[in-house]
Every structure is written in structure tokens, then in C-alpha cells.
Fold each of these.
Amino acid sequence: MFLYLIGLVALFALYRWYRETKRVPNISDKYVYITGCDSGFGNLLAKRLDELGYHVIAACFTEKGEDDLKKCSSKKLTTIHVDVAKSESIQKAAAFIKSKVGEAGLWGLVNNAGLSVPAGPCDWLTIQDYKQMLDVNLMGVIEVTLSVIPLIKKSQGRIVNVASVFGRISPVGGAYCISKYAVEAFNDSLRRNLRDFGIKVLCIEPGFFKTTVTNTEVIEKNLHNLWDKLPQEVRDDYGSDYVEKVLKLMKEQMDKLSDPDLMKVVSCMEHALSAVYPRTRYSPGWDAKLFWLPLSYMPTLIADYVLARDHFKPAKAVV
């Protein structure tokens, strides 16, 4: 009986592999709009899709990002400036894309732009800190999507939302996890709403990779900036050496957990856009598959215990 079960699992895995190898035809006629292409996943995806023959519309936040991308891409790749926190910028980009794609419509949208700081203990942050990140990581995703849905309907194409494994479990304070939980919810509702129009909505939930999100210099600067703005009463609650202890542990964990192979994520994005039968969710990274996702399904008591093991208590902790 056990051998039969193994055989069935093997057959299912083989069938799934074969099914997922099928690619959509005529990619040279398809347009894909990607946000956050200055660096990281978005930048690599733009280059990869350009190599495959797609018409790539790469949205960058900086002129340098646009210039650098143009230098190493074909003439089929177009760069545009987009600030996903500003409605005017989003609508201007949508108008440009509409004129670019014509009646063919937009095959794919990849919502990749995002911020990872400011982040820290919840009582270190102001409401403005939360709004700043939610404007980019959540409201930007929603508004960019709404701006091009009519164009995606024309092609019966794809929407790929880059969330995070921290959209499943929330180990850190600040708006980052909140925004990614919300992106997951938006992704699910969008997938169900647009299914009748032939549009597939997919979600990418990466673990730890070596990007600006896990850049220890960026995180260290962020924590020091937050600490310097805190009232003395809050600093006394945590203790004068709290930041340094947290940073030391964080650097050790980032070195161990952060995967340098960003193409693991980019390959998932490309598959979501190109496969005839894409997956609903992708969780690139062994830490996502073997630690974060299983932990997210655990009872709260267990998850809290596991996460508390590497947690530094404030100086005035009472428990």
C-alpha cells in the first residue's frame, strides 16, 4: 500500500511538472508592465523578459535606474518614471501604456515596487511612518492595478503581485508585514473577481534574499534614525544598549538566511507570466518553504514561542 502511495505521488509530481512546462505562444507580441525596476527583482525580471522577447515597460523611480536599464537592454524595452505613491504619476503611466499597447492590450502587470523601512518596534514609529510605507506597498499596488485592468481585460492576461512570506506571519513591527498581509488579501479578492474575464492573478511570497529589503546597512541606518527620534522615556524602557544588541543578532541572521540567488524569485515571476498553467502562489527560498510557511500554520502559542527565542527583552520588561 505504501509503495502505491509513493507511486501516485511520483505520478502526480511528473504530471504537474509536465503541465507547468507549457508556455503561452506569441510572447514577442505581448506587453508586460513592471514596477520597481531600479534594482533587485524588478530589474532582473525586466532584463529576463527582454531577453525572452517580450515588450517590457519598466517603471523606475530614478533617472539613474532608467539609464542603467536602457544600457543593457534591447530597443523593445521601454522605461518610464513612476512614483507609485502619487496618483498623478500612476495615471500618467497608465495613459502612456494605453497608447503603447493599443488594441492588443496589456498581457502582464507585475506589482514589484515596495519599501522595507521604516521598520522597528511598534512604539518606535509614528502614524506617518505607517502611512509612508502603506502608500507604496499597498495603496500603490491597488492604484497601479486599477489603472490598467481595462487593458489586461483586452488580452485576458496576468497580474502578478509581489507580497512576502511576511504576508503570512508577522515577526517584526512596523507597516511592512501589515502591507504584505493586505497585498495577500487584495490578491485573493482580485483573483476571484477577475477570473470570469479570463485574467489570472498570481502571488509571489519570497523568503529572505539579498536585496535592499535585507541590506543590513539600510536596516542599521533605519534603526538608528528611529532611536534618535525617540523620547527619553521610551529609550529608558528599552535600555541604551538595545539597538546594538538587536543589530548584532540581525546581522548574524541576515548572513545565514539571505539567499544571494535572486533568479529563484525572478524565475517564479517569469513562470507566472509565461506558463499556460501558472501556480496561484509561489514561495521561492528554502527558508520560506521549510521555516516561515510551516510556522505560519502552527498554533499561535507555538509560533510566538519560536519567534521569542531570538528576541531581546527591553530593559524594563516585566515578563
Note: The mean pLDDT is 94.
Amino acid sequence: SSGINAEYGLTGQDRFYIAAGGGSSHRDMCHIMNVIDDKGFDCTLTDHSADYGMLSLQGPRSRDILEKICDADFSNNAFPFSTHQLVTVAGHQVRAMRLTFVGELGWELHIPSESLVAVYEAVMAAGGEFGIADAGYRAIDALSSEKGYKHWHEDVRPDTTPLEAGMAWLVNPKLKTDVDFLGREALLSQKKNGLKQRLVCLKVKSPVPMVTLEAIYRNDKVCGYVRRTAYGYSVGCNVAWGYVENPAGLTLDWIRSGTYKVECMGELYDAEMTLAAPFDPKNLRVKGDYSEDYFPLSDTTKQSAHL
């Protein structure tokens, strides 16, 4: 199968640190153990979930806050995106990972359980002058939806592939080599034979509450359904993600040439389709660049998306 069985952060060379989603950690562990057994790998997997907690510090002043209470250099050169370091925060050793699920400059702090409260209090105290505030999971849902970040079990699942989810950039480099990985042959076959479905973003201007599973219409015919939705406060509309299907085969022209609507509670609402993220498509904020104000996607930007 070339489906997506898990999503997690992974660091290391001969020893690995795996950060899995809280809602799927047990399933992820079982999946990894099954692969270890099937392949006969000489390795062990230990669950440290009860030993650590995580705080995610996100936003334009996240670097300023950490540099007030940390012994490390958090500049772009010293701490690039998608890297991690062991640092000391307010006297406590913390694994800092430069990652984001909301599209902003930020770090995840993986903290020993006994140090969680002390580190949290130090972060909040240091961030007071910058207007730091707690944010809940619904805020994460809305921001990640605007940025097109994928939720496992919604946007991506075992019955969807990276090519269908618009994540070809993750697998194409390896497909051009002889590197073997789970699902390789199935993906090569899919590239050769074409896609039957593709994840798209639909911006619905109506503020009507949406809860997922709404039908997607292309040119007045049902072509799929919504997998995930949230109201995007930065873009001023509902942001819905769903897969559109065409049994005759998908092309970018077929996807882009349609007129889309979303059905919600028996009513049809106009939707604008895009294959790229509705917010900050240049990924400037992730790099710590806040020099440009947000601007809506232009037709030129939309054309840069690919299957």
C-alpha cells in the first residue's frame, strides 16, 4: 500500500527521537513495531510519553522570548528550520525543535514532566512584555487549516497517498533514486497511471458552520466531500479541505477549470478552489520573515501548485 499510515517528527542517525501525535501515538507505535518485526530489524522502541510534555511557542516574538531565558543561539544560521537542539531553559534541560503547525516562526519545547510547570512559568514571564497568551487546540486547527498543514486521520489517511494529498515533494526525490521504502512500488505505479483523486482547498465565503463530510460539487455534480474544515480568521472565510475525484483521471486543467460549491445543511454555497495554502503561500513567516503583510493568493501563485 502507498497510503499514509502515520505522521510524526523524527530526528537522529543511529538513535532516533520520534514525536508522534497525541491522538494516534498508540497506533503509530504499533505500526513501527510491526515493521520492525516484519523486517527483522535489530532495534528497540521505548515509549517515553509519560516522561515528557510539550509546549509549542509560536509567533513573531518566539525567538525573542527564548533568547531571554535560554543559553542557545536561536538565529536562522545557528538554529535552522526542522532541526533540534538540547538547550537549557530557566535551568532545565529541554529539547527544542524548530517546527510549526500554525505557519509561524516558532519552536516546540519537549520538556521532562517534572520541569513542565517551571519552564511554562518562565516562558510566560519572559513573554509578558510581548503580549504572550495561551492558545487552545481550536486555534491550532484554524491556523493549520489556513496553512494547509495536514492532519492525519482527516486530510491524510491509509487510503490516501502523498501524491493525492499534494505532498509529492516529500517522495519524488527518493523515487528518483534506488532508495527503498514502504509503498515505493505503489507510488511509482500511481505516477505512471495517474491519480483518481486529489486534495484541494475550498474557500467558502459564507460563515455558515461547517463540520466536515459536506458534499463538494464541481460544475453542479458531486465530485467528493470535505475531510476537514475550520473558519480561517486570517483569510476571513471557511477553509475546507477535501478530495475531488474523476473516474476518467485527474489533470490540473480538469481541477482548475471547474466551478465549485459546497453543500451544507441542504444549501449550496459558492467556493473558490486552490491547490496551495490560502495563507502565506511563500512560507515567509515560518522563516521568521514578517516583512510582507498577508496577501490573498494570486492566479500566478495558484499556478505554481502541482500534482
Note: Confidence is low (pLDDT under 50) at residues 297-307.
